[in-house]
Write a structure and sequence with these properties.
The complex is a heterotrimer of chains A (425), B (375) and C (295). Chain B is mainly α. Chain B contains 15 helices and four strands. In chain B, a hairpin with a 2-residue loop joins strand 2 and strand 3. In chain B, helix 3 packs across helix 12, helix 5 packs antiparallel against helix 11 and helix 13 packs antiparallel against helix 14. The radius of gyration of chain B is 22 Å and the shape is globular. Chain C is mostly helical and 295 residues long. In chain C, strands 1-2 form a two-stranded antiparallel sheet. In chain C, helix 1 crosses helix 9. The chains are: A alpha/beta (425), B mainly alpha (375), C mainly alpha (295). Chains A and B meet through helix 1, helix 2, strand 3, helix 3 and helix 4 of A and helix 3, helix 13, helix 14 and helix 15 of B.
Chain lengths: 425, 375, 295
C-alpha cells in the first residue's frame, strides 16, 4: 500500500517544489529606492509606529567548521539590534535581523544561493561569515551596492568599500604579537604554525614581516585541520625550539599542538590568534600547558572587559551561561553598520546608495569604548584608515571567557611603519 | 541489420504499432513522447520570462549539474562502474575553463579566452584525458573497491588544488569562475536580458545537446556494450566486448561530461573554491543519479534538478512546521531542521522509490495507460 | 632512530582508532555488502555520549554505557531504515546511510554546542618512557584496548553460536537462512557492533584535546584502511588501520624534510596513495577474498 502512494507523494512534492521554490518575475522589480526598508513596523517590535529596516545575516549555523562561532555571533547581533530598537530605533525605523537569517554551512556555493534568496529583501547584511564565502558574493555586493559587516578578520576587507570591518586584521595582529614578544619575551626566533588559506596565511604573512623587521629567525609550518593531523606541527615546534610560536588554528587543534609540544619538552611561548581559544579548553588535559605558555592576541577586549560597550553587551545577553568571544565579536562587528545607518538616516537617504555613501564618508564610529573611535574609519585609503592596534590576553580562570587582558590595545613599531597597499597574503 | 533497411510500414489506424527494430529504437518512438518532449521544451524555453532571477539562477545550476549527472549515469548507470571520483573531474573542468577564460592580469592563472565554446570543449577534453588515466584501475577493480579508489582520486585532487595556488587561489581564497562570452555577448552581465536569463538559456541549450548526444550514444553499439558490461562483465567479454577499451571509453566520456558540467556550474555560481570538490560533491552526484533513476537520461535531469532545488525547499518547509525556533542557539531550530530534512528526504525517497523519479514516472504512465481498468 | 620509533608508536596509537573504525565498516560490509557511511555519526555520538556521562559516572563506566547506548542506536537505525532495503542495490543503501549520517550529525552537533567537550579520560597528555621512547599514555591505552577488543571479537566470531551464525550469513545468506540462522538478527547485531566500535574509537580520538563538531572527518580515514586490508577481511581491517596510522605519522614527520615538493600537509592524503599502490598489485586488498567469477 505504501508503495502505491509514492507517485502521489512525489506529485505533491513536485507541486510543493514549484510553488515554494520559485518566485515569479515581477514587472519593474527592485525599485531603486528603499529595498529592504518598509513603512510597516517590524514583526515583534516595541515601536509599532516605526518603519522597518531589514538586514540579512548569513552565518555558519549547523554543520560547518565555524558553527561554534556563527551561532553566538548571530545571537549577539540579535541582542545588539534589539537594544537599538528598544532605544527607539534609527531615524524612525526599527532594525530587523531575525527574518532573513540563513545558514551557509561554510560553503561558498550555498552562501551564494542563500544570498540570492534574500538579497532582494534586505538593505544590507549584518553578517556574512567567512572569507571564501563572502568572496563568492563580493561581485554582487559591489554591483548592487549592498553594505555588509563581515564575520572574519582578513586584511582583504580593508580594500572593499562595501565591507564594514571592525578592529584590526590577522596580519597586523600578528605583527603586533611578534613585536610584543620581541620586547617582552626577548624572543630571538619565531615559528608560525598556521592553517592554509586566508586565516592562517594572513597571520603568517604578518608574523614574517615583523620577524624580519626585528631581525628574528622566522619559519612557518602549514598544518591541516584535524586533531590527528597535527604531528608535523608538533614535531616542528619541539625540534625547532622557537622562542615564540604564532598559532593560527582552531581551538582543538591548538590544544593538541600546545599540549603535545609541552609534553614533548618544548619550553617556549605560544601566542594564538583569537579563534585558537575556547573557554572549554580550561577543562581539557592541555589546561596546565595553556596556563604556562599560552597567550591570546585579539582585536578587542574579551567578554569580561570593563568598558561601557562590554557592559551593555553583558546586560543584553542575560541568558548566556557559557560566553565565548564569538559573542563579543558579534557585538563589536555591529557598531559600524549602526553608525552608517544613523548617518544615512540623518542624510535622509535610507537606500543602498545612501548607505554606501554614508559608509564611505564615515571616519569615526562610537564603539562605546570597546575600540577607539578611529577604529571605524572607512573614508580614505586603506593605508591611512586601517586600524593597527591589537591586544594580548592571558589565561585567567576567573574571567567569563577564561582570558583577561595582559597588554591593552597597542600598536607595534612594525605595524606602525608597514605600507599597507595590498592584502598581506 | 542490413544496409537496405525496409522503410517502416505505417498501418492505417495503428500509429503506435512497431513494424521494425529501427522504429522501436528511435529516440522518440511514440507520438506522445514526441509531443511531451516538445511541450517540456516549450515550457522550459518560456520559464526565463516567467520566473525571477533567483529561481532562474537555481534552475540554471540544476541544468548544468544535469550534464554532470548524465555523465555519471553513463559510467555508473549504463556501464555499471560506480565511481566516487566525479568531483575531481568537475574540478578539472571548472579550473580548465576558469584558467582559460580568466583575466590574464589577475592574481590567478588566466589566458583571457572567454568564448564559451572554446573553454567548454577544452574543459571537457582535459577532464576526458584524465578520465582515461583512471581506466586502468577500472579494468582491474570492481564494485566498492573501485568506488573507494576513485574516492582516493578526490582526496588527491583536493590536495593538489589546495597546493596549486597559482591556479586555484588556494583554500579560503578561491578564484572567479569561468567568464562566459558568446558571439561578443557577455552572458554573465545584464544586457537586453538579465545575466540569469542568458545563463539559463545557455544551460538549457547545452543540456539538450548533451542529453541528445548521450541518448544517441546509449542506443548505439557502444551503449549496448556498456549495458552488457554492467549486467555481467565476464559474459560481455565472452561475447566479444573488449572490456578494457569500453571501460576506458565509459570513463573518458563520463569525465568529458563532468568537465563540461564543472565549467558550467561554476560559470553560474561565479566563484570557485578548492575546498568545494570533496567527497560530499561526488556523493551529491551519485544521489542525483540514484534519485533520478540509474540508467536513464531523463532521470539524470530530474535527479539533478531535485538535488539542486532540495536545499531551497528544505529552507522553506520549516515555516510550515509549528514549534520550531528560529533562534540558532536553541536545540532543534530551523537551521538544524533544514539540514536534517535534507538527509531525511533523501532517505525517505530512496526507501519509497528505489528506482528513482524515473520509476515514479513509469508507474504513473502505466496507471494511466490502463485507465480506467488500472488497479 | 628514536624519532622514527616514536613516530611508529604514535602512528600505531592513532592507527588503533582507525582499526576499530575499519572493523566496524568491515563487519557491516560482511553482513550486508554495504559500506555504511553512517559510521562517522556513530563515532561522534559515542564521544559526545561519554562526555556527558563522564561527570556523574567516571570514565570507564561512562565509556561502557556510552558504547552500549550507541550500539543500541545502531541497532535501531538498522531496524528502522536499513532492513526495509534488503535486496535493494547496495549503492542505494550506501546513499541512505549517508542521509542517516547527515541527519544524525546535526542532532549530535546540537549536543556539542559551542564548546569543546571533554571526555575526562584518566591519561591526559602524560607520557611514559618505554625503552627510551617517550610514548603517550593514551596511545598505550588505545593500543591495549584495541588489542583486547579485537581478541574478544575474533573469539566471538570463532566460538560463539551467534558469531558462527554471522559468519554463515556472510558466506551465503540464503543457505544460512535455510539452516535456521536468523539473518535479520545478524544484520542488526553487525550494525550494533559496528556502531559500538565506532563509539570506542570516537572516545579515544577525543582523549587529549576533546570533541568538536569536526571530529567526524577522522572516520573517513578508515576507508583507505578497509580497501588496503581487503573489504571482507577482519584481520585486513586491523592491519590496514594500523598501516594507515603509521604511514600517516611517518609521512608527517619526514615528508617536509625529504619531499617538500609534495606540498604541505601531504600526510593527509598519504593513506590514499598507499591504498592506490597496493591495489595496483593486489586488486582485492592485502587479505580480501578474490571473487570467484562465474558467467
Amino acid at each position: 500500500m505504501a508503495l502505491r502512494k509514492a507517485p502521489l507523494v512525489a506529485a505533491l512534492a513536485a507541486v510543493a517544489l514549484l510553488t515554494s521554490a520559485c518566485g515569479l518575475r515581477e514587472s519593474g522589480e527592485e525599485a531603486s529606492t528603499g529595498v529592504g526598508v518598509t513603512k510597516e513596523a517590524c514583526p515583534d517590535t516595541p515601536n509599532k509606529d516605526n518603519g522597518c529596516i531589514y538586514l540579512g545575516a548569513i552565518s555558519d549555523l549547523t554543520s560547518g567548521p565555524f558553527a561554534a562561532l556563527g551561532v553566538p555571533i548571530t545571537d549577539t547581533q540579535k541582542a545588539f539590534w534589539k537594544r537599538v530598537n528598544d532605544a527607539g530605533g534609527i531615524g524612525g525605523y526599527d532594525i530587523d535581523v531575525t527574518t532573513y537569517v540563513r545558514d551557509n554551512k561554510y560553503n561558498p556555493e550555498t552562501h551564494k544561493q542563500v544570498f540570492d534568496e534574500i538579497q532582494g529583501k534586505v538593505l544590507a547584511l549584518s553578517q556574512t561569515l567567512g572569507s571564501p564565502t563572502t568572496a563568492a558574493i563580493m561581485n554582487d555586493l559591489k554591483a548592487k551596492k549592498i553594505v555588509a559587516a563581515p564575520a572574519s578578520w582578513t586584511s582583504v576587507w580593508e580594500f572593499e568599500d562595501v565591507i564594514v570591518e571592525s578592529g584590526t586584521n590577522y596580519c597586523f595582529e600578528s605583527m603586533n604579537s611578534v613585536d610584543w614578544a620581541t620586547e617582552n619575551l626577548k624572543a630571538k626566533s619565531v615559528l608560525a604554525v598556521h592553517y592554509a588559506g586566508d586565516y592562517g596565511e594572513d597571520a603568517a604573512a604578518g608574523a614574517k614581516v615583523a620577524a624580519e623587521a626585528n631581525g628574528l629567525k622566522f619559519s612557518a609550518v602549514e598544518t591541516p585541520p584535524g586533531q590527528d593531523n597535527q604531528a608535523s606541527a608538533i614535531k616542528a615546534v619541539v625540534s625547532k625550539k622557537p622562542d615564540v610560536v604564532i598559532l593560527t588554528t582552531g581551538p582543538t587543534d591548538a590544544a593538541v599542538i600546545i599540549g603535545q609540544a609541552a609534553a614533548g619538552g618544548y619550553k617556549g611561548q605560544f601566542i594564538g590568534t583569537s579563534p585558537t581559544w575556547n573557554p572549554a579548553l580550561l577543562k581539557s588535559a592541555a589546561a596546565p600547558a595553556f596556563k604556562a605558555m599560552y597567550r591570546q592576541s585579539a582585536p578587542w577586549g574579551p567578554f569580561g572587559s570593563d568598558t561601557a560597550g562590554h557592559k551593555a553587551m553583558r546586560e543584553a545577553l542575560p541568558n548566556v551561561t557559557a560566553p565565548t568571544d564569538g559573542h563579543t565579536a558579534g557585538w563589536v562587528w555591529s557598531y559600524p553598520l549602526k553608525a552608517a545607518l544613523e548617518k544615512a538616516a540623518e542624510d535622509g537617504d535610507l537606500t543602498r546608495e545612501g548607505l554606501l555613501k554614508a559608509v564611505t564618508s564615515l571616519d569615526k564610529v562610537d564603539y562605546e569604548g570597546m575600540l577607539p573611535e578611529d577604529a571605524g574609519n572607512f573614508a580614505g585609503e586603506p593605508n591611512d584608515t586601517v586600524f593597527r592596534k591589537s591586544l594580548i590576553n592571558k589565561i585567567d580562570d576567573s574571567a567569563p571567557t577564561g582570558v583577561a587582558v595582559e597588554q591593552d590595545l597597542f600598536e607595534g613599531p612594525t605595524g606602525q611603519k608597514y605600507e599597507f597597499s595590498k592584502a598581506c597574503f | 541489420m542490413t544496409a537496405t533497411r525496409p522503410r517502416p510500414r505505417q498501418i492505417t489506424g495503428r500509429p503506435e504499432l512497431y513494424t521494425s527494430y529501427a522504429q522501436q529504437l528511435r529516440m522518440f518512438n511514440t507520438r506522445p513522447k514526441r509531443l511531451a518532449v516538445l511541450a517540456i521544451l516549450l515550457v522550459a524555453l518560456s520559464l526565463p520570462f516567467v520566473y525571477d532571477d533567483e529561481t532562474l539562477r537555481l534552475l540554471a545550476l540544476g541544468l548544468a549539474a544535469a550534464i554532470g549527472a548524465i555523465g555519471l549515469n553513463l559510467v555508473t548507470g549504463y556501464a555499471g562502474q560506480v565511481t566516487l571520483g566525479h568531483a575531481f573531474f568537475l574540478a578539472v573542468g571548472a579550473y580548465t575553463a576558469a584558467a582559460l577564460s580568466g583575466d590574464p592580469d589577475g592574481r590567478t592563472i588566466g589566458f583571457g579566452i572567454t568564448n564559451v565554446l572554446v573553454w567548454l570543449l577544452a574543459a571537457g577534453l582535459v577532464a576526458a584525458v584524465l578520465g582515461l588515466l583512471v581506466a586502468p584501475l577500472a579494468a582491474r577493480l570492481r564494485g566498492l573497491y573501485l568506488a573507494v579508489v576513485t574516492l582516493g582520486l578526490v582526496f588527491l585532487g583536493e590536495h593538489i588544488f589546495k597546493e596549486w595556488q597559482e591556479l586555484t587561489g588556494g583554500p579560503g581564497v578561491g578564484r572567479p569562475g569561468p567568464v562566459p562570452e558568446l558571439f561578443g555577448i557577455r552572458l554573465n552581465e545584464a544586457g537586453v536580458f538579465t545575466a540569469e536569463q542568458k545563463l539559463y538559456l545557455l544551460m538549457l541549450v547545452l543540456l539538450v545537446g548533451f542529453a541528445v548526444l548521450a541518448r544517441n550514444l546509449v542506443r548505439s553499439k557502444v551503449g549496448r556494450a556498456f549495458s552488457a558490461i554492467r549486467d555481467r562483465d565476464i559474459a560481455a567479454s565472452v561475447i566479444g566486448v573488449n572490456l578494457t577499451r569500453y571501460k576506458a571509453l565509459a570513463f573518458a566520456i563520463s569525465s568529458f561530461y563532468a568537465g563540461c558540467a564543472g565549467a558550467l556550474v561554476y560559470t553560474v555560481s561565479g566563484f570557485v573554491e578548492p575546498g568545494s570538490f570533496n567527497l560530499l560533491l561526488s556523493v551529491q552526484y551519485i544521489a542525483m543519479v540514484l534519485i533520478g533513476g540509474a540508467g536513464t537520461i531523463s532521470g539524470s535531469i530530474m535527479g539533478a534538478l531535485f538535488i539542486t532545488l532540495l536545499p531551497r525547499i528544505t529552507r522553506d518547509l520549516p515555516a510550515f512546521l509549528p514549534l520550531i525556533s528560529a533562534d540558532a542557539s536553541v536545540p532543534l531550530n530551523v537551521f538544524q531542521v533544514e539540514t536534517v530534512l535534507y538527509g531525511l528526504l533523501i532517505i525517505g525517497f530512496l526507501l519509497l522509490e528505489p528506482r528513482g523519479l524515473f520509476g515514479i514516472w513509469v508507474r504513473i504512465r502505466n496507471y494511466w495507460k490502463a485507465w480506467p481498468f488500472s488497479y | 632512530m628514536i624519532e622514527f620509533l616514536s613516530g611508529v608508536v604514535s602512528g600505531l596509537g592513532a592507527g588503533s582508532a582507525y582499526a576499530l573504525l575499519a572493523l566496524g565498516f568491515v563487519i557491516v560490509y560482511k553482513a550486508t555488502r554495504v559500506i555504511s557511511f553512517a559510521q562517522p555519526a556513530f563515532m561522534l555520538a559515542g564521544a559526545v555520549a561519554v562526555s556527558y556521562l563522564v561527570g556523574p559516572l567516571g570514565f570507564v563506566p561512562a565509556l561502557l554505557l556510552g558504547v552500549a547506548g550507541v550500539a543500541l542506536l545502531g541497532l535501531a537505525t538498522e531496524r528502522a531504515v536499513i532492513r526495509p532495503m534488503v535486496g535493494r542495490p547496495v549503492f542505494v543503501v550506501a546513499i541512505i546511510t549517508l542521509g542517516i549520517d547527515i541527519a544524525m550529525r546535526v542532532v549530535v552537533n546540537g549536543f556539542i554546542g559551542n564548546d569543546v567537550r571533554q571526555v575526562g579520560d584518566p591519561w591526559g597528555l602524560r607520557r611514559v618512557n618505554v625503552l627510551g621512547i617517550a610514548v603517550q599514555q593514551r596511545h598505550i591505552a588505545m593500543i591495549v584496548t584495541t588489542a583486547v577488543l579485537i581478541g574478544v571479537l575474533f573469539a566471538f566470531f570463532k566460538y560463539s553460536r551467534l558469531g558462527l551464525a554471522m559468519r554463515a550469513a556472510s558466506y551465503d545468506q540464503e543457505t544460512a537462512l535455510a539452516q535456521g540462522v536468523s539473518v535479520g538478527t545478524v544484520f542488526a547485531l553487525s550494525w550494533a557492533i559496528a556502531a559500538g566500535l565506532a563509539a570506542v574509537a570516537g572516545t579515544f580520538v577525543a582523549t587529549g584535546a576533546g570533541v568538536d563538531q569536526q571530529m567526524w572527518i577522522i572516520a573517513l580515514k578508515a576507508l583507505p584502511a578497509i580497501i588496503l586490508g581487503g573489504l571482507d577481511s577482519l584481520g585486513g581491517a586491523v592491519v590496514g588501520g594500523l598501516t594507515i596510522g603509521v604511514v600517516e605519522s611517518l609521512v608527517s614527520s619526514y615528508q617536509s624534510d625529504f619531499a617538500p615538493w609534495l606540498g604541505q600537509n601531504f600526510s593527509v592524503v598519504s593513506p590514499y596513495v598507499v591504498m592506490l599502490l597496493i591495489l595496483l598489485v593486489r586488486p582485492y586488498g592485502l587479505f580480501g577474498t578474490r571473487e570467484v567469477e562465474r558467467v
